[in-house]
Amino acid sequence: MKKNFLLAFATLFLFSSCSNDDNENNQNVVKPIAGIWKMSKTMIISGSNNAILQSGNITGCESLNTFEFGQNQNFHIKYYTKNNVECIADGFDTGTYQYSENSKMLTFTYSDSIVESFVVHSLNNAEMMTVDHIEDYNNDGVNDTSVIVFKKQQ
Fold this sequence. Notes:
Blueprint: H1 2-9, H2 20-33, E1 35-45, E2 52-57, E3 66-69, E4 74-83, E5 86-100, E6 105-110, E7 115-123, E8 127-135, E9 144-152
Antiparallel strand pairs: 1-2, 1-3, 1-9, 3-4, 4-5, 5-6, 6-7, 7-8, 8-9
């Protein structure tokens, strides 16, 4: 399950630890993150001019996965997979999260103590983009950023 989440939500995030100063920022930043999110699309953004080089919608069972972030900095992720004809719930992950607005790092500590971090490309009350991968997709000599776009449901 964690690998699915990492592929869907990672490459966009790197891990870092937060200082006490960051904890003060976290209290302000939890509000935009708190809620239920779903992956909506992937994009590749040009490093040279921020143009969208490629975009594709998330479809199938993966589009049903939910990422719930609580005000208390707990998270719950529910995964779906295809069972012959229909999508069915296939597992979940829980734990705690921290977000540092200064470093743009979102860190997950799973209930089994595994820790993963991700870079947040952008965040507002309706949309969050996480960095999935950085490389020169269009061969112009400048690294581009592959992101996963999450839309807030509630």
